[in-house]
From TrEMBL:
Enzyme class, UniProt record, top EC level: lyase
Cited CDD domains: OMP_decarboxylase_like
Single GO molecular function: orotidine-5'-phosphate decarboxylase activity
Protein name as annotated: Orotidine-5'-phosphate decarboxylase
Domain annotation Orotidine 5'-phosphate decarboxylase: ranges: 29-283
InterPro entries noted in UniProt: Aldolase_TIM, OMPdecase_type-2, OMPdeCOase_dom, RibuloseP-bd_barrel
E.C. number(s) listed in UniProt: 4.1.1.23
SUPFAM superfamilies: Ribulose-phoshate binding barrel
Alphabetical keyword list: Decarboxylase, Lyase, Pyrimidine biosynthesis
UniProt-listed Gene3D superfamilies: Aldolase class I (3.20.20.70)
Pathways per UniProt: Pyrimidine metabolism; UMP biosynthesis via de novo pathway; UMP from orotate: step 2/2
Pfam families per UniProt: OMPdecase
GO biological process: 'de novo' pyrimidine nucleobase biosynthetic process; 'de novo' UMP biosynthetic process
Natural source organism: Bifidobacterium moraviense
Length: 392
C-alpha cells in the first residue's frame, strides 16, 4: 500500500471502493438501475403500487445477478407509495445484499450537515433499515456540508456518489457556472465539487470510496466544466447511456483516459426488454458487453492532460489562469439544483419515448445495443421472481 499521500486511517477507513472494484473486475462496469416507473409496471403486467414495484425490482435483480457489478435503486420510485414503498425498498435491498451484489441507493440527499447526519442511521450503520453500500448525494448546500455524512459512510465501510455533472442538460448552466469567491474562485461549480470529492480519495491505494456522478451525455459541455474524469481516483457513476441518448462513442469521449473506475448505470434501456426474464437477462448481458468494450477503448484514449501534468483549461475559466488539478483545498456553496430528465420520462403521460421497436410493449430504447432478441438461447439467471420473494 502506498502510504505516502494519506494517513493510515484513511487507507483503512472504507473498503467500499475496493469491494466495488473487485465486483467491476469480475462482472464488468455495468450497474443495473432499478426504477419502477408507473408505465413500465403497467407494461410488465404489475400493479402500480408498492407490491408491483417490489416484484419489478426482484426481477431486475435476477437479471443483474452475475451480469452486473452493482444495482441502483431510485428512491422516489418507492417513496411515492409511502411506508409501503419504503418497506418494499427495504426488502429488495435485503434481497440484493443476500445475492452479494453491490447496492447503491439513489436517494439524492443533501442539506445542512446537522440534518443529514440522520441519513447515516438510515443507510450506513449496522442494522440500518435501508443498509446500502453507497448512496447518492446532492452537493448544492456546498460540498463541504456533506463532510460529516461522508465521514460516517467511510467509518462504516460505505461509499457515496456526489452529483458533479449530471446527465440532464438543465444542469449544465449551473454546474459550469464560475465561482465568484472561495478556494475555487474562477473555477466551475462542478470542478469544486469534483475536487472536494477527490480530497477524500487522496492517499488511498486503488479506487477510493467517495465517488462522483458524471453523466455519459455531457460530452458537449465537459470541457467547459474543467473536470477531467481521468484525474479522479474514486468511482464515477455514469447515467445517461441508452434511454437518455448516450452511446458507446459518448462513453469514450467523456471518460477518455480513465482507469477502470467508471460504473455505467442503465435502467430503462434494460427494463424495456422485460418482463420476460430470458430477454431481460440477455439484454443485460449484451449491454454489459457494449459498455465494457466502450470503456476499455476509453481507457486507451489519452486524456486532456498536458505534458506538464495539468488539465487543459476550459475557456470560461482561463481568466484566473490557475492550474486545473484536483488539489482540493476546500469548497464554497452554490445554488440548489432542480434536476429533471432531459428525455421523455415513462412516468409522464404527456411525454412519449422514442419508438424504434414496434414489438416492445414498453417504450423502446432510444438507441439499440448489439442485443438481438432473436438470438435468445435461454436464461442462466436464478429462479424466476414470484410474490414469495425473500422478506426481511
Ligand atoms: O445525473 C443523473 C443522476 C442520476 N440519474 C438517475 O439515473 C437513472 C437513469 O435511468 P435511465 O432509465 O437509464 O435513463 C435514473 O434513476 C436517474 O434518476 C440520471 O439519470 N442522471
Amino acid at each position: 500500500m502506498d502510504m505516502s499521500g494519506g494517513n493510515q486511517m484513511d487507507v483503512q477507513r472504507s473498503d467500499f471502493g475496493l469491494r466495488l472494484k473487485t465486483c467491476m473486475d469480475k462482472y464488468g462496469p455495468l450497474c443495473v438501475g432499478i426504477d419502477p416507473h408507473r408505465k413500465i409496471l403497467t407494461d410488465w403486467g404489475y400493479n402500480v403500487d408498492a407490491e408491483g414495484a417490489e416484484l419489478f425490482s426482484m426481477r431486475m435483480l435476477q437479471a443483474a445477478h452475475g451480469r452486473a457489478a452493482a444495482v441502483k435503486f431510485q428512491t422516489p420510485m418507492f417513496e411515492r407509495y409511502g411506508s409501503k414503498g419504503f418497506a418494499a425498498l427495504e426488502r429488495v435491498l435485503y434481497a440484493a445484499r443476500q445475492m452479494g451484489i453491490i447496492t447503491i441507493v439513489d436517494c439524492l440527499h443533501g442539506g445542512l450537515s446537522t440534518t443529514i447526519s440522520a441519513i447515516a442511521d438510515a443507510y450506513f450503520k449496522p442494522g440500518a433499515p435501508l443498509l446500502a453500500d453507497a448512496i447518492t448525494l446532492l452537493p448544492y448546500y456546498g460540498a463541504r456540508s456533506l463532510s460529516g455524512l461522508i465521514d460516517e459512510a467511510l467509518d462504516n465501510g460505505r461509499g457515496v456518489f456526489i452529483a458533479s455533472l449530471t446527465s440532464n442538460e438543465e444542469g449544465a448552466s449551473l454546474q459550469t457556472a464560475i465561482r465568484q469567491s472561495g478556494d475555487y474562485k474562477g473555477r466551475t461549480v462542478a470542478y469544486g465539487i469534483a475536487s472536494t470529492a477527490q480530497k477524500h480519495n487522496e492517499g488511498i491505494e486503488g479506487m477510493g470510496s467517495v465517488g462522483l456522478i458524471i453523466g455519459a451525455t455531457i460530452g458537449q459541455w465537459i470541457s467547459d466544466s474543467g473536470v477531467d474524469p481521468a484525474q479522479f481516483t474514486g468511482p464515477i457513476l455514469s447515467p445517461g447511456y441508452g434511454w437518455q441518448g448516450a452511446e458507446a462513442k459518448d462513453l469514450k469521449t467523456v471518460f477518455k483516459g480513465t482507469k477502470g473506475n467508471v460504473l455505467v448505470t442503465v435502467s430503462r434501456f434494460i427494463a424495456a426488454h422485460g418482463p420476460d426474464i430470458a430477454m431481460l437477462s440477455q439484454a443485460t448481458e449484451s449491454i454489459a458487453l457494449d459498455v465494457r468494450q466502450a470503456l476499455l477503448e476509453a481507457t486507451e484514449e489519452p486524456s486532456d492532460e498536458t505534458p506538464s501534468g495539468i488539465v487543459s483549461m476550459p475557456k470560461k475559466a482561463t481568466e484566473t489562469a490557475t492550474p486545473l488539478t484536483f488539489a482540493a483545498t476546500g469548497e464554497s456553496a452554490a445554488a440548489s439544483s432542480g434536476a429533471a430528465d432531459a428525455v421523455p420520462d415513462v412516468d409522464d403521460p404527456t411525454e412519449s419515448a422514442p419508438q424504434t421497436d414496434e414489438s416492445a410493449s414498453v417504450p423502446a430504447p432510444a438507441v439499440r445495443s448489439s442485443f438481438d432478441p432473436s438470438k435468445t438461447t435461454g436464461d442462466s439467471a436464478p429462479a424466476a421472481a414470484s410474490s414469495k420473494e425473500p422478506r426481511q
